[in-house]
Amino acid sequence: MDELQELEKIRQDGLAALSHVADEAALEAWRVAHLGRNAPVMQVFSRLGQAPKELRPKIGQVANQVKQELEAAFQERATALKQAALQRALTAERLDVTLPGRRPARGRLHPATQNLRRILSILGEMGFQVYTSREVELDEYNFQLLNIPPHHPAREMQDTFYVESPQTDGSYSVVLRTHTSPGQIRAMREFSATNPDNPPPIRVALPGMCFRYEQITARSEVQFNQVEGLVVGRHITFSDLKGTLSDFVRRMFGQNTRTRFRSDYFPFTEPSAEMDVECFVCGGKGCAVCKKSGWLEILGCGMVHPTVLQNGGYDPRKYSGFAFGMGPERQIMLRHKINDIRYFWGNDLRFLEQF
Amino acid sequence: MKVPVSWLKDFVDLSGLSVVELAHKLTMAGMEVEEIRFVGLPLPDSDDHGFKVSGLSWDADKIVVAQIDEVFPHPNADRLVLCRLNDGLQEHTVLTGAPNLFEYKGIGPLPRPLKVAYAREGARIYDGHQPGQVLTTLKRAKIRGVDSYSMVCSEKELGISDEHEGIILLDEDAPTGMPLVEYMGDAVLELKINPNMARNTSVLGVAREVAALTGRALKKPEFTLETTGEPIEGRVSIQITNPELNPRFTLALIREVRLGESPYWVQRRLRLAGMRPINNVVDATNYTMLEIGEPLHAFDYDVLVNRAGGGEVVILTRTARPGEKLTTLDGVERTLTETNVLVCDATGPLSLAGVMGGQESEVSDHTVNVLLEAATWNFINIRRTVMQHGLPSEASYRFSRGVHPALAIDGLRRCLYWMARWSGGKVAPGIVDAYPLPPVDPCVEITAQDVERSLGISISLEEIQQMLERLEFRCERRGETLQVQTPPIRMDIGEGVVGVADLMEEIARLYGFERIPETRLADSLPPQRGNPSLEGEEHVRDVLVSLGLQEVITHRMTAPEIEARLLPAGTPAPSVEYVRLVNPISPEKRVLRRSLLASVLNVLERNARMAESLSLFEVGAVFEPSGEALPREPRRLAIAMTGRREESSWDAPEGRLMDFYDLKGVIEALMEALHIRVAFAPEEHPSFHPGKCATVLCGEQKLGVFGELHPLVRENYEVDTPVLAAEIDLEALLSLLPLLGHEVRPVSEFPPVLEDIAVVVDEAVPAARVEELIWQGGGKLLAGVRLFDVFRGEQLGAGKKSLAYSLTYQAPDRTLTDRDAAQIRTRIIRRLEQELGAKLRS
């Protein structure tokens, strides 16, 4: 048989066989059969020496063409098969993307810690360093040095837990602190001791747990966090207090937050004020959270009482200062419309996990 | 304190000022209005006024003053009467069951018509027959065959008080036909009086504030008296034993009082202010107290004369003798102590000074002559007595905040003025006044610079003077200084620098807090110290949260038996000292916690039913008695875990239960994050499983203990799965935090050689010891050791275990050869053989 005719048949057989190849395995079998070492086209090459000399170039050339054509067809087929296989696989692997994902266990800070941190970080950027002090305090630090002598009417405002301790003058001398203010005295004394004749200025934030003798109800708790701020220096004014606190609440509740200062009374500040912020729930229009008033009581503040400065080692004729205090839990309750304060120390995960 | 707005108008013109505007001014100036109760006056139209409001407004067209000209019996009902009533427009027949009209029934036309509050058809009033305040609209009806379309009202129906025994009988001069709201429409301000506002526990005091805040004139009360008869001098004398407790005591006499009801407007004001009208004499003392702020007490003079045997009445004030008894006018016999102050006569105690009168000498129906007391008492002593006897009263409310002694005379004169008017009594000339201890009313010097330095506002001395004078301070200008004399009405202004600060508050209040500008701090910054201890604590929280743990915060207060749950039931209670509360709110909160773990386990237990998996921690103080006044407050870290390692999901079954190594992994990760190198050693602790408990060591220092709760301890908690728990000494932990950072090794660029070895050792050999020896044997070229299998089996022999490690060899400067690796390996194996008799497992 004419080798050229043979090559044409090889070509046609090969392509015909390839058109029936439907998977990777068949393709590989086809490759071995049609392009492998013993494939017909390869045998044409190996028989080339036996062909008439003048026909050899022509046969060689055609054989090469056939081989290349089969190879190209093979490649094309291989790509098509791969594409088809991929298509099948992709179709088969389609997921219900609405099924729940696998979540790594996520830890959370207690909401009180979260808000404490937020407050302290804003105050920190405003130059207030954190000063921490003890939770069980001397009556002297919690009351007397803060201008609240025994039987002062202000003590009624703060129902106090007393700790069993040796009594002096028929009353107990150790209390659970009712506010973080004793830290004011401790901070002032610590700072003024470093240079009693010319004490350094103070700008501290005093966070911590405080205690009030109350029944535990939706509205009252025996313990709560407080953050106070204390600024003492040579030129501190009430207008500084207003500016600093307004800056603070704009950071805390939004740049458009409006504030309002009302005269109020605290034994350790004079003048004293209550700062209200425009209700951030209703924008001041009046809602259930602000009890229709449009304002929320957020913190108490005032100029440090001269007696308190004196007790801290700062001469009130040379130094002045302001102080303020707020309740982190109360802010959370307002912000999230929580109406039961017991959630905080109840530690029900169904509550904690929402923060 | 409840202040009727109508009463304020006696002393200050409020025209052009709405009730809400008035409340706003008072609130901003430090007298917070907690509620406004409208009693007739129209309620505000919109909601945005910022106050809690309640009450009823009276429709001017439908509720008017009317007069009853005659009262007839009802044809079909004994308990009802018919009134011929004129409402200024026409006559009506009105039906009522009011018992206070029965006495006029059937006596013909009344010579002096009765003035009443008359409600026409359609009026909105409260239903008198329902408890509380239920709004209703007056409708036409037939009652016992008589057509009824209007009514005469009780105080309850108009929202004045709860009184529904009879209808209101207005004063005779009430103009028939006038809308009732115009005649006596009112609003009551409920004011919060702070301790520094003691001077404002009266209508006059509040009026003075309003006048000062609005720049209006204060109309001073009338004090002029007509006196007749014998003077009081010589009939009564006063002896004060302790002027510190009783700085002033004054007495006046009024004769021939005719006891009876006070005018209706007085009764109405008393009720609106929260007091009960009694009779015209007692009402005069209460009315004056509410009006002026000076509590007064009325004695039956004849009882005292009788006790004195007809001679001079000697009033003595002294402290009680221990065990002395007095029956107060509430009928309770009280046993007194020597801190209580008594007003006595020669025979014995008459009243508990400043708190409550005694029964014997009180004004009764037979009283004719009244001895009137106005005195001043030590406010601290009064507070103690009030608390001791549980006897709060309107008088002690004022005395316990401090009443200026100068007020005694004003109070006495004003009370005599009212008493004479209402009871027809004749005031005897003179006042007996014992005043052994007048207070010093401070005089304070201030300058405009003081104001600028404190408030940050620059205002002239003239302006400052004007403001202070509005509050009755007397000011005298001396150059650039103002001498400010405190008026004898207040005791809250201090001396010297304190006085200056006190005046700053008054200036700020009158100037208006809202007008003070906002400035940023310009003062120099303090030395920067930070708070490394808190930073460390917060870092620990962050690491634990990053490891998937939930932070909890628990009560500091607990009970020893709650903490004893950490021990197997029946274990003798350890003799641990607690910080104990004198006044706990409940037995289970009577001490401060010594264990943080006990608190966290309580939380674990409470949540266990709801969660497949719980990993909790708390960072906080525990409280240890120190022998000193104040306890130690070391901070601890407690961790508690239970349940599944992984939560089950829609394609995964329930995971394995967490065990000892899950908690240990948390602790290892924490220590690694803190860069503190720790070791673990077996530990015996009564709370923990004896074989699953370890101590965390840094060198010799114990940082804490952890493990699986002892099965008998777990029985104390309602938790079904093994509980892993740890309590770590946070103070010790934080003291180990490297100050300047930990060592960081360079990362090699050369390829590592990886190799696995398995060694067989005795069961008792701790894995940590094997790893330690591998590191020792491996030397510098050993870069990593990882235990990947622990195997026990027959082929190893009893009491043996196989530990398989994956080792990484690496040099910083070259590629290791096979020979290098073989050398390291040989050294490691030799070390393990020598120290532990370990065998290489092939």
UniProtKB/TrEMBL annotation, chain A:
InterPro entries noted in UniProt: aa-tRNA-synth_II (IPR006195), aa-tRNA-synth_II/BPL/LPL (IPR045864), Phe-tRNA-synth_IIc_asu (IPR004529), Phe-tRNA_ligase_II_N (IPR004188), Phe_tRNA_ligase_alpha1_bac (IPR022911), Phenylalanyl-tRNA_Synthase (IPR002319), tRNA-bd_arm (IPR010978)
Reaction equations catalysed: tRNA(Phe) + L-phenylalanine + ATP = L-phenylalanyl-tRNA(Phe) + AMP + diphosphate + H(+)
Domain of life: Bacteria
Cofactor note: Binds 2 magnesium ions per tetramer.
Domain Aminoacyl-transfer RNA synthetases class-II family profile: from-to ranges: 138-334
CDD domains linked to this entry: PheRS_alpha_core (cd00496)
HAMAP family reported for this sequence: Phe_tRNA_synth_alpha1 (MF_00281)
Quaternary state and interactors: Tetramer of two alpha and two beta subunits.
The family this protein is said to belong to: Belongs to the class-II aminoacyl-tRNA synthetase family. Phe-tRNA synthetase alpha subunit type 1 subfamily.
Name of the protein described by the UniProt record: Phenylalanine--tRNA ligase alpha subunit
Source organism of the structure: Anaerolinea thermolimosa
Gene: pheS
UniProtKB/TrEMBL annotation, chain B:
Domain FDX-ACB: 748-841
B5 domain mapped to chain residues: 439-518
Chief place where the protein resides: cytoplasm
GO molecular function: ATP binding; magnesium ion binding; phenylalanine-tRNA ligase activity; tRNA binding
Cofactor details (free text): Binds 2 magnesium ions per tetramer.
Keywords on record: Aminoacyl-tRNA synthetase, ATP-binding, Cytoplasm, Ligase, Magnesium, Metal-binding, Nucleotide-binding, Protein biosynthesis, RNA-binding, tRNA-binding
Reactions this protein catalyses: tRNA(Phe) + L-phenylalanine + ATP = L-phenylalanyl-tRNA(Phe) + AMP + diphosphate + H(+)
Enzyme class: ligase
GO CC annotation: phenylalanine-tRNA ligase complex
Subcellular location: Cytoplasm
Biological process, per Gene Ontology: phenylalanyl-tRNA aminoacylation
Keyword Nucleotide-binding: yes
EC number: 6.1.1.20
The keyword Aminoacyl-tRNA synthetase belongs to this UniProt entry's keyword annotation: yes
Pfam name, any one: tRNA_synthFbeta
Binding-site positions, Mg(2+): D492, D502, E505, E506
TRNA-binding domain mapped to chain residues: 57-181
PROSITE patterns assigned: B5, FDX_ACB, TRBD
Cofactor(s) the record lists: Mg(2+)
InterPro entries xrefs: aa-tRNA-synth_II/BPL/LPL (IPR045864), B3/B4_tRNA-bd (IPR005146), DNA-bd_dom_put_sf (IPR009061), Fdx_antiC-bd (IPR005121), Fdx_antiC-bd_sf (IPR036690), NA-bd_OB-fold (IPR012340), Phe-tRNA-ligase_IIc_bsu (IPR045060), Phe-tRNA-ligase_IIc_bsu_bact (IPR004532)
PANTHER family associated with the record: PHENYLALANINE--TRNA LIGASE BETA SUBUNIT (PTHR10947:SF0), PHENYLALANYL-TRNA SYNTHETASE BETA CHAIN AND LEUCINE-RICH REPEAT-CONTAINING PROTEIN 47 (PTHR10947)
Family recorded in the similarity comment: Belongs to the phenylalanyl-tRNA synthetase beta subunit family. Type 1 subfamily.
Record text on subunit structure and interactions: Tetramer of two alpha and two beta subunits.
NCBIfam families: pheT_bact
Protein's UniProt name: Phenylalanine--tRNA ligase beta subunit
Lineage, opening ranks: Bacteria, Bacillati, Chloroflexota, Anaerolineae, Anaerolineales
